[in-house]
Structures are given as C-alpha cells and as structure tokens.
Amino acid sequence: MIDEEPPAEPPHEVDDVPTISCSICDREWQLTYELDELRVGNRAVEQFALDHKRHTGHFPDEVMPWVVTCTECPDGEAYLEERPADRWAHAHARHARHAVIVEHESIDGERTIEPPESDSLG
Predict the structure, then answer these.
(1) What SS3 class is residue 116?
(2) Phi, psi (5° rounding) for residue 107?
C-alpha cells in the first residue's frame, strides 16, 4: 500500500499586509501589489523601496540604504543590505583602482575601501 499525501491547502489570505509611507511624497501604500502580483513574499518592502527610489529618486521613510560612492569618478550605488554594498565597493576598488566610501547610519561615520596594492601572481 502506498501512502498518499493529503492535498496541499490553498495559501492563507494575508491579513497583515505591510504598509510603507513616504513623507516626501506625503503618501502611504499597502504592499498588496508586491505580494499578490509580483509574488516577492518577504522581500515586498525591499522591492517597493527599490522601485520607489528608481521612480522618484528617493527611498521611502525608514528605509536606510547602504550608500557606496567612488572617490574619483561619479560611480556609486545604494543598496538595502550591507553585503551587496560591500561587494560593489570591493569590486569597484579592484577593477577601477579607485577608493570607495561606504556609508550607513549603523556605522559611525564612513568606511573607505582602498584598491588592492597588487593583484599580480608574482
């Protein structure tokens, strides 16, 4: 006899939809679209924040990005997590041979990523 698994239950309705506000836009949004249409799950706040920045030029309230800025060229980015910000900073320092400043409210001041002395094998 083969044990059959019971049919999967349909997903439960989300009754605690996150809400994001932006004092610059003087608006508030429920993230139903990000959950239902984009299906980004627990990344709904991050997706909304990145889309908001892309379309308005600023992040919504309470979203504090990690900002990486090259000290020599106009290159730079903003990330919502430290790891991709550090990756960008180290990659730019290595490839462009420029120092990069990393800023976030969780660190005192700023952190500078210097280009490596040498990448040679010898």
Answers:
(1) coil
(2) -110, 145
